[in-house]
Amino acid sequence: GQQVMQIPQYQHVQEGEDFTTYCNSSTTLSNIQWYKQRPGGHPVFLIQLVKSGEVKKQKRLTFQFGEAKKNSSLHITATQTTDVGTYFCAGPASSASKIIFGSGTRLSIRP
Amino acid sequence: GAVVSQHPSRVICKSGTSVKIECRSLDFQATTMFWYRQFPKQSLMLMATSNEGSKATYEQGVEKDKFLINHASLTLSTLTVTSAHPEDSSFYICSAREIAGPVGYTFGSGTRLTVV
Fold first, then answer.
1. How many beta-carbon contacts under 8 Å exist across A and B?
2. Do B107 and B1 touch, CB atoms closer than 8 A?
3. Residues of chain B with a CB closer than 8 angstroms to some CB in chain A
4. What are B70-115's pLDDT values in tens digits?
């Protein structure tokens, strides 16, 4: 079945270092969404990418959608302690209105 | 923005009892809501899609008789865990998206269920 994988599973960085998580889908996606879940919290929508090769920025966060629309990445520049959490990508399922979440990348930061 | 209210946030129940979790969309209508289950340090696993006025659509491997879903109005969906067992202990989260609203799904704050 349709799968959305993310790597790495965990990332522990020094505050100020950069961080990147990669998302790969087994199928072509019409769009990809990114969510952030703080420890003990619920997922919060960050952004949606739709176009092949699209790049969007939100302050220190840069999101990319691959040319083949099967992969995506999230890059955080100069991490801060507020960036701690798990980042999930999510893509629409091949059928119905539901979305499939990636396996997530958990980011922890050393102050 | 769109807000989804979920409660209770935490519940402890005895084995064999049933627990009802409510998910409400505030200030918007949701013909479809989604119920997820999340184990510690894992991703969100979709359990079922709740459809207003009709039967829920369950994902493969999810027991529909155990996880009863009711979506009686455009703003409320409920998940009832029947005859709960310790292995049902988990974090349950609902989500919804405002029709013709901003893209992205809005999640409830989740319910931490502990079955003892």
1. 45
2. no
3. 32, 34, 41-44, 46, 49, 57, 93, 95, 103-110
4. 998 999 999 999 999 999 999 999 999 887 777 889 999 999 999 9
